[in-house]
From TrEMBL:
SMART domains: LytTR, REC. PANTHER family: STAGE 0 SPORULATION PROTEIN A HOMOLOG (PTHR37299:SF1), TRANSCRIPTIONAL REGULATOR-RELATED (PTHR37299). Pfam families: LytTR, Response_reg. Residues 139-243 form the HTH LytTR-type domain. Gene3D superfamilies: 3.40.50.2300, LytTr DNA-binding domain. Keywords: Phosphoprotein, Two-component regulatory system. This is Chemotaxis protein CheY.
Amino acid sequence: MRVLIVDDEKLARDRLRELLNDIGGYTVVGEAMNGTEAVEKSSELNPDVLLMDIRMPGMDGLEAAMHLMGMENPPAVIFTTAYDQHALDAFDVNAVDYLLKPIRKDRLAKALSKAHKLTAKQIAEISQARPEPASRTHISVHLRGNIRLVPVPDILYFLADSKYVVVRTAAEEHLIEDSLVNLEKEFGDRFLRIHRNALVSTGSIKGIEKNPAGTWQISLKNYDKKLDVSRRHTAQVRRWARNRPMAG
């Protein structure tokens, strides 16, 4: 069984590697220090199972697991955690394998022997119960069986297009299967609804102006195309503009 160890602390990674050597029958194919590395290395190395810490800087283990669900053949995940009992109850209810730190050899061996693949529903329910609920740091894009992670701060806007949503950065665009309603719920503090089919990053807005036709448009930093503001959302957008000075 091929194992990827994911933890931001080197001592913890070394400890897991030693325990795996003692148990025998497992090959450590790599290590990662955060969730972003875990997703990238999983796509590259195709491990059978991840031993993954939950609390890590940047992308945490729960978000990484959610992105991994998009792989053609996702690995099993065993979480390692120092969470308190309230959070651990969520793992028990959802029948997800986890190891409480400090990790014991017999407990690790037992978890590995029954490691199973997670479902998106399990991860979503545990994410809601964790002590520090948070929105995703990245959006995952599926390209020919691989996962491409797009940092949320790089996204200029989300645009609904048929059954897909266009994710636009200054350099490129991708299609994801999601809904603007869900994205607005998750990122509503960072994105502004300007149209029934568009959410714009507030940090990317350069200005708002009227075009010759008398309707309002938004201009963005580092992007030439202007986006139309619908009549229905004009008042909300202008109110936002009045309350927040915009950079040039």
